[in-house]
Amino acid sequence: MTTLLIGAFLLSLLVITAVAIVRATDLFSAVMLSGIFSLLMALNFFLLDAADVALTEAAVGAGVATVLLLAGLRLTPPTEARGRSLRVLTPAVIAAVALLMIYASFGQPSLGDPQAPAQQHVAPWYIEKTPELVDIPNIVTAVLASYRGFDTLGEVFVVLTAGIGVMFLLGGGRGKPFSRLDSNVEEGLSRHLIPKVMARLLVPFILLFALFIQFHGEYSPGGGFQAGAIFVAGIILFSLVRGERLTLAVIPPRVLLWMSAGGALLYGAVGLAGIAMGGNFLDYSVLADDPITGQHIGIIVIELGVGLTVTGVLLSIFHAFAARD
Amino acid sequence: MKLLGLFNYWVFAVLLMIGLFALISRQNLIKKIMALAIFQSAVFLFFITMSKIENGTAPIIQAGVDNQIFSNPLPQVLILTAIVVGISTTALGLAIAVRLYEEYGTIEDNEILALDRSA
Amino acid sequence: MNLADHLPALQVAVPLLTAPLVILLRAGFLAWLTALVASLASLGLAILLTVAVLETGTQEYYVGGWEPPYGIALSVDGLSALVLLLITGASSLALAGGRQSLRLDIDNRRAPMFYGAWLIAMAGLCGIAVTGDAFNVFVFMEISSLATYILIAAGRDRRALSAVFKYLIIGTIGATFYLIGVGFIYMMTGTLNFADMALRLDDVIETRPVIIAAGFITIGLALKAAIFPLHIWLPRAYTYAPNAVTVFIAACSTKVAIYVLLRFNFTVFHGNLLGHSDLFSVFIIPLALSGILLASAIAIYQGNVKKMLAFSSVAQIGYIALAAGLASQAGLMAALLHMFNHALAKGTLFLCVLAFILTSRSAIITDLHGIGRRMPWTMAAFVLAGLSLIGVPGTAGFISKWYLIVAVMEVPGWGVPLVMAIIASSLMAVVYLWKFIEAAYYGEPPPGGDTAALEVTLPLRALIWVAALSNVYFGLFPQLPLALAQSGTGTLLGGLN
């Protein structure tokens, strides 16, 4: 009951924040509010037992998305022009659809109902069979990496596509390095003492935490996506205090490109190895003599591929925005 | 009690429509991208709400603890994917918005439309 | 290890995994060549799959070795094979014919990224066609959409950027609506596999969430398929995309959305939702009709030949939607055949336009006056494909128009007015195509313009003619599309029995 009330409270805050985002004409405030929105959303996910999703929403929604929006805003005007107001029709239609959906909700199973059809068919099988078939504690990772590994392969390519798109539009990649690299630009926050000291203290721990999330994903919430996002957050913090040039000297654009493509290829190679060793595409059981060992090997390798691609792509995207004048 | 159990779904409906309204009514492209994020987040909430089971816990098996009730892992997996799709769309949308500003000198949709028409 | 057993997975994996290799390349030519080879390989795989489907029926494949509904199952039937042939064929045609044109549009340094995106777009579309899992469809839909946005944004005109932003917003709304619908169905059935959904929906038919799900999925996919009046993103996106990209996406991308729409509405909902076919028809037929009539009329007034053909596409999608909306055996046959035949005709037409623009550097009809006299070969191919678009006997377009009219005549009371609408729209197609053909053959060239003969290179001309003659070939020997459409209709209506 208490959780339910806390949840209701958080959800109300969520709606208020969403309205504030829409109403704000100062886009910087809107970006900050959308960071808050994502954190509130992450809290809700945590209350709803979705630890992995909460971690991802916090790292991706509140972290990476905010950084990208700020990087975009640096290149575009910071305030929104207020144009004509809308006619009556659109708000009316939209309100009607919302009411229709609320009306439909009365036919839905209510929150937490263990008898709901969604909890019956496929889900119990995952919970029951995972210890025997895949034998890793985190069932979410088992479903993500093995049972629905084809979706996750697709997911890696969605990230790669976004990276390709941003590099295509803004620069980056093989023939066209980030444009501002050679010019002498202001070196971040390096002249400010407090951020500099704090960042120096934090960055190693953030990177270490990312590695933990990467390699402990089978046992606790986490995996390649979250690890990649957190790793990137650490590097971006480094870049903010030490300047971009040094960051790019540490991890050059060429390496980023190889990471992006290599991670995706690694994932695909595991899939093809399944075929080569007599199983189906993405069948990890055949990768070792013992099916469960095979599953473990497969999951660890594809999670590594995911982590590589996410890190490479997100950093490339960050540099592509940051290097543009 | 029954009503409180449906509250999550109402918030889903309201957030979805706030996002859609902003997408249609706001002219600023960055604002549209943020509205798109709200719109997609609403769907995340919808799926995760579906996965919750009363007295359940996150679907991670702990050694030595028996008779645990686990919440449904499947919608959580789907939403992990959807979140990544969402951030990818945001990144690409932002890159296009930046290029639009470089070409048109504005990121207000109606002004871009006017420039297109006069061309 | 027998690779023939893995065709459905390879159909996606081959182009998908070639893409990261392409972006690592340095030179534009190599990137193009690799993309073309991968595309042709995919076409080969699609042909092998088609043969397998025709010989042994639906091909099932369990990714990761996990049985459905726990794992993701791929399932290729006649309809999927038809769509796969369209996707891989259009991609190969556009890549092979678009080399010169793409070299002008995309500078060498950015070319590897572009061709990488191209392969990902094609792999995503193939993924939608092979998978039997509702959420997997969403993932591949987003892969192909994101990649398509990149391809369109590569257009040289700055209006490509504003067009693609609108497409991105509308495309994401469409995909998210689809996802909401899938969520509601999962909520009521606990499964994501199409076949399993169809079985389990039986118990929960007529519940509010399922009806809402049908609404969200239909509207979301109608947005993606550009069914009138949800087509607003399409004309500008087609017009300002690089010409080779237009050849590719105009031939297949909206058809893939229609494919998913048919899968859901027939395999999953049809047998279960009482009166669903009525609801679906009532929703889709008026939209389809207004699309057929209005979009054809708008096409007449276009001054840009690409935009004219784009509006014509909206009208043609209307035909497909109308045929599917009849929800009958004959209607579905007509819809599937028209998907195939329209792709042939539109692919050829846009390829000819690519050639015109290659030589005259403009897509504005007044700039193209006299082009027919200067490029007789290409222009003749254009006329041939145009005849197929109109539906003249002897061309592929005639076959599907014929099936459409037969299907429409079955509708009690409405047969004659519907046939009149189809004929009216076909006459309008004659008008807008004639407007261009007349200008091309008899128009005075723009002042100061050249009048010397100027044709595109021989290989491109040959390719244009292969495409044009395929319109005639499938008009005279329609066995292959007929067999695939027959098999596809069978599986779609299987839900009824």
Summarize the structure.
Chain B is mainly α and 119 residues long. Chain B has helices spanning 2-25, 29-51, 73-104, 109-118.
Question: What descriptive keywords fit this protein?
Answer:
A: 325 residues; 71% helix; C: 497 residues; mainly alpha; two-stranded antiparallel sheet; 76% helix; globular
**What is the residue-mean pLDDT of chain C, rounded to a whole number?**
91
Output the number of helix runs of chain C: 20
Helix-strand pattern of chain B, N to C? HHHH
CA distance, first residue to last residue of chain B: 60 Å
Number of domains of chain C: 2
For the largest interface, the chains and their residue counts are: A-B, 99 and 88 residues
The helix/strand order of chain C is HHEEHHHHHHHHHHHHHHHHHH
Helix content of chain C: over 70%
Written account of the structure:
The complex is a heterotrimer of chains A (325), B (119) and C (497). Chain A is an all-alpha fold and 325 residues long. Helices cover 71% and strands 0% of the residues of chain A. Chain A has two domains: 78 residues, no CATH class; 188 residues, no CATH class. Chain B has 119 residues and is mainly alpha-helical. Chain B has one domain: Helix Hairpins (Orthogonal Bundle). The model of chain B has no long low-confidence stretch (mean pLDDT 90). Chain C has 20 helices and two strands. The mean pLDDT of chain C is 91. Chain C has a two-stranded antiparallel ribbon with strand order 1-2. The radius of gyration of chain C is 22 Å and the shape is globular. With 497 residues, chain C is mostly helical. At the A-B interface, helix 1, helix 2, helix 3, helix 4 and helix 5 of A face helix 1, helix 2 and helix 3 of B.
Topology:
The complex is a heterotrimer of chains A (325), B (119) and C (497).
Chain A: H1 2-23, H2 27-47, H3 51-74, H4 89-105, H5 123-133, H6 139-147, H7 149-170, H8 193-215, H9 224-242, H10 244-250, H11 253-276, H12 291-322
Helix pairs in contact in A: 1-2, 2-3, 3-9, 3-12, 6-7, 6-12, 7-11, 7-12, 8-9, 9-10, 9-12, 11-12
Chain B: H1 2-25, H2 29-51, H3 73-104, H4 109-118
Chain C: H1 7-24, H2 28-56, E1 59-62, E2 73-76, H3 78-97, H4 99-105, H5 111-130, H6 134-153, H7 159-189, H8 194-200, H9 208-225, H10 234-240, H11 243-270, H12 276-300, H13 305-325, H14 329-360, H15 371-374, H16 376-390, H17 396-409, H18 415-442, H19 458-476, H20 479-493
Antiparallel strand pairs in C: 1-2
